[in-house]
Amino acid sequence: MTKETLLGKTLSELKDIVAKHNMPAFTAKQIASWLYQKRVRHIDDMTNLSKAHRAKLNETYEIGAADPCEETKSVDGTKKYLFRTHSQKLVESVYIPDKERATLCVSSQMGCKMNCLFCMTGKQGFNGNLSANEILNQIQSIPESESLTNLVFMGMGEPLDNPDELFKVLEILTAEWGYAWSPKRITVSTIGQLTNLRRFLDESNCHLAVSLHSPFADERKSIMPVEKAWSTSDIISLLKKYDFSKQRRLSFEYIMFSGFNDSKRHAQELVRLLKGLDCRVNLIRFHAIPNVDLKSSNEPSMEYFRDYLNEHGITCTIRSSRGEDIFAACGMLSTLKQGESH
Prior knowledge:
This protein is an alpha/beta fold and about 350 residues long. It has helices spanning about 10-20, 25-35, 50-60, 120-125, 130-140, 165-175, 195-205, 215-225, 230-240, 265-275, 300-310, 335-340, and strands at about 5, 60, 70-75, 80-85, 90-100, 100-105, 110, 125-130, 150-155, 185-190, 205-210, 250-255, 280-285, 315-320. It has 12 helices and 14 strands. A 10-stranded mixed β-sheet has the order 3-4-5-6-9-10-11-12-13-14, covered by helices on one side. Strands 1-2 form a two-stranded parallel sheet.
């Protein structure tokens, strides 16, 4: 019999479990503390639970923490971890050390439905949503887990296409009974999944990053089919109803493609589009992927674009590229190759 995992359960779910097994109500908080603060690997390590209660839990549950099955290290110190899911599929997450920061790029799905032209994850198709357990396990089971300073949901998949599990994870990460992280340490990236974007903005205080990549709808549609379902203009209209001037930060991701979206015309339209929004733009180098006829903009083009935006009131930076040699950079995550070799 496959046991149910406790890692990934919210306090409300743990309360239901202890009630079902006729345990005292306070046991739920004790279990949460063992899971998320003390990070135990076995139910028998929960020493302030009676032996009878531990035995009862052991019959049906397990913690559900599993080490990565593979680790690859880049020349720049970036590490890519490969995890096996409960369905025996594979997902990747990326650890990025940078001076006093230590960021983990987390996956939320096995593959992706969005099929953006420039992204290797989309090329492998969609194999299912990750559970809260499988998302949290990426965070808790890497050797650097205790030293992480930031989390970005920018790995495999569209986080807002897996909303219920994502929101459970965000609750566990930020709740006092969970990891007690500040929402300011967490960024959720989206292509602008409008259906669940409003829910995210209403229910979470975490930072938001929107993948834009062109200010012109027709151009964006040619590389991001989702523009047909959720248009840039609708996304911007929604974002303008929220206040990003305080703690929560709004950023736009903009991969620079030579001769496609890196002209002065694009910079001008981007300034017009984002006018009135308290936001920043991150320019990202494109990392070539097989069978895609796009090339990265050169350094002078990227610097001109950055300077134009900054001069016209839009905070803009060029993101440094990490982990390209191990296919861990932006848009390069894919488990197709690993799937063949396991």
